[in-house]
Write a structure and sequence with these properties.
Elements: H1 10-25, H2 45-51, E1 58-63, H3 74-86, E2 91-96, H4 107-113, E3 118-121, H5 131-139, H6 149-154, H7 157-163, H8 166-174, E4 177-184, E5 189-193, H9 200-203, E6 207-209, H10 213-221, E7 225-227, H11 234-239, E8 245-249, H12 250-256, E9 264-266, E10 278-283, H13 284-289, H14 292-300, H15 302-327, E11 331-333, H16 337-355, H17 363-383, H18 392-398, H19 407-418
Length: 423
């Protein structure tokens, strides 16, 4: 079979888009069919190799958000390597690094127009085009934020909710994308400041850079003044006192090198800031061109992506951030009681507003389902045996890949969330 539509010209692809859109709208994502014989769930590497024996080579265009070999892009590289290996080399990737093909806000467009076949989409940049996905980010205020259990919980339950919310799936289909994984994070967002700020008195009036509407509302609820600062200007803005704090994740803080200028981190394990998620998606046209075995393999090895995201990216960058904070003379602290209560009130206000917003057909049911999914995965993470032996201050000296094995989590994630939607 032809490898995929990247073999066609860009103009030809554009000409085909209306027909492709109609075709994608006509099929149910969970009932669509593909050519060729498939493999059973749980198939071995040898069984997959046999299934690909008569499949023509498939080349897929993709990109990662970071330089090759970087912790920030490790999870994507692990996923691509797993696909190539398990397909016995029949699926390969032309991979660009550091978003070289499309910047974050254009990745969905690149999937639709043929520049990319597989990409990490960021609906957070276009909330008006993806209101249901924006709602998913808003309910993420229900997440936990402890370094181990919180990371696992908040990377799981929003996916369960997303697959159960037709509006979220439809937004991707309407943009000619096949949704693979609705929600993954770079870790908990925190308040990184040039001086210690954890109570309302010290946070009041602080100029805080924010990267989304929800965290802006939360910053205001804490008495801060939310401002927008370009990522590349964060360090200089903090160093010169143009801003006092930045609301961001440890992964981004390490990547941007801002900890030296803002080593005082407020990160409450129980009441936290909204998350800044991404999603994985494929071009719908590319997806439909693939044989069934290829679709199934791309789906089955999402377990590698899930495991790599929490272990190779989030926990590794959190350990690096923890060490950098201590080296810079700072520390991690939970919010003081008054700030915690203020953030709790703000989070409930966000949820109340969302319930009546119309972002999804039944906002109240959506919020209630979010609460249930959050509770379910809080319990499940504990049942799987995960716990937090240290806090963020000690995480840098405590964590090694051998300390926490995310395999059981990835298996449970796949079985509970992804398996019901397997091609």
């Amino acid at each position: 079979m032809p490898s995929h539509r990247s073999r066609t010209t860009w103009l030809t692809t554009l000409a085909l888009l209306p027909a492709l859109a109609l075709a994608s709208c006509a099929s149910d994502p969970d009932t669509e069919t593909a050519s060729g014989e498939g493999v059973e769930h749980g198939a071995s590497k040898a069984e997959y190799a046999e299934a690909f024996a008569d499949v023509d080579p498939i080349v897929l265009n993709t990109q990662t958000p970071a330089p090759k070999g970087s912790v920030t892009g490790s999870y994507m590289e692990l996923y691509l390597e797993a696909i190539e290996e398990w397909s016995d080399g029949k699926i390969t990737f032309e991979t660009a690094y550091s978003n070289a093909i499309a910047p974050p806000e254009e990745i969905d467009d690149a999937l639709a127009d043929g520049r990319l076949d597989l990409g990490l989409v960021l609906p957070i940049y276009e909330p008006s085009e993806y209101p249901a996905n924006a709602a998913l980010m808003e309910v993420s205020v229900l997440s936990d934020h402890a370094p181990v259990t919180g990371t696992l919980q908040h990377n799981a339950w929003p996916n369960q909710l997303a697959f159960d919310t037709p509006e979220i799936l439809s937004e991707f289909a309407d943009h000619d994308m096949k949704l693979m994984l609705p929600f993954y994070t770079s870790g908990s967002n925190a308040l990184l400041c040039s001086e210690a700020r954890s109570d309302l008195g010290s946070i009041k009036g602080a100029q805080v850079s924010v990267g989304g509407a929800s965290v802006g509302v939360q910053a205001s609820g804490l008495g801060a003044s939310p401002v927008s600062v370009q990522y590349t200007e964060l360090f200089e803005s903090l160093e010169r006192g143009v801003i006092d704090c930045s609301m961001t994740s440890m992964n981004v803080a390490v990547l941007g090198g801002i900890i030296e200028a803002a080593p005082h981190v407020a990160l409450d394990p129980e009441v936290g800031l909204a998350l800044s998620p991404g999603a994985m998606a494929m071009s719908q046209a590319t997806w439909e061109s693939l044989p069934l075995a290829a679709q199934q393999l791309l789906w089955d090895r999402l377990d590698t992506f899930v495991k790599g995201n929490v272990a190779d990216k989030i926990w590794t960058s959190t350990a690096q951030a923890s060490a950098a904070v201590i080296d810079a003379g700072g520390s991690f602290s939970p919010l003081a009681d008054d700030a915690r209560k203020a953030l709790e009130r703000t989070n409930e206000e966000i949820l109340t507003k969302l319930a009546g917003s119309g972002a999804v057909a039944d906002g109240e049911a959506f919020v209630e389902a979010a609460r249930e999914a959050s509770d379910t995965w809080r319990s499940k993470v504990g049942e799987l045996g995960y716990e937090d032996e240290v806090d963020y201050n000690e995480f840098g000296t405590w964590y090694t890949p051998e300390k926490v094995d995310a395999e059981a989590y990835a298996e449970s994630f796949y079985d509970e969330i992804l398996l019901p939607h397997r091609p």
